[in-house]
Each structure stands twice: as C-alpha cells, then as structure tokens.
Write a structure and sequence with these properties.
This protein has about 60 residues and is mainly alpha-helical. Helices cover about 55% and strands about 10% of the residues. It has a two-stranded antiparallel ribbon with strand order 1-2.
C-alpha cells in the first residue's frame, strides 16, 4: 500500500486475480465427477451444520 501525498489517495498493490481465477478453473475442470460429488457433499454437510449453529456471545 502506497500513500500518494499529492492526491491524498491510497493505491492498493496490483494482484494478478485473472491468473489465479484461471488456475482455479483449470483445477476444477480437471477434477473427476467423483471428486466434484464429494466436494459438493462436503459443502452441503457444512451448510447443514452452519444452519443449525447457535451463536453465543460472552463478555
């Protein structure tokens, strides 16, 4: 992060999001149907757990 005193704005560092997105897409496309099924069932189980979760705040 760099502060530009002339404009008084903050410039965030440039990240290569497009390459990261393409890499994730290639990895997902190369996985088998069984791997996709297992990933989906893990997400469904996690969703069920989080739905029934009760959040308690203690001081």
């Amino acid at each position: 992060m760099k502060l530009d005193n002339r404009k008084n704005t903050v410039e965030e560092p440039k990240a290569n999001y497009k390459k990261a997105e393409e890499d994730l897409l290639r990895k997902a496309l190369s996985s088998s149907y069984t791997e996709r099924f297992h990933a989906m069932t893990r997400l469904m189980k996690l969703n069920m757990v989080l739905k029934s979760a009760k959040i308690v705040h203690k001081k």
